[in-house]
Amino acid sequence: MARIVVxxxxxxxxxxxxxxxxxxxxxxxxxSEFYDEVHDNINLIIQFPQIGNKTSKRRNKYKRVIRHRTSxxxxxxxxxxxxxxxxxxxxxxx
Length: 94
Known about the structure:
Structural class: alpha+beta
Helix content: 40-55%
Number of domains: 1
Distance between the termini: 34 Å
Oligomer: single chain
């Protein structure tokens, strides 16, 4: 079964901001490692959509911690995985 991944705007913006921050403060190597880690986790989610922890707000919405400070928030709908946010775990949910 082929799954497609759709990045929503919040996820794209937060991902780009995080990568830019890492380049500026930690260097290209750390930013590249983070970039690869996010995409490796997305590939894992494609293979195993329910690998993340279900959030309490919606049944088919999941959170996968990729680093102690960062998580991927995503929703599964049929064969589509919507990446809804790249979340800084230090932030409080809205």
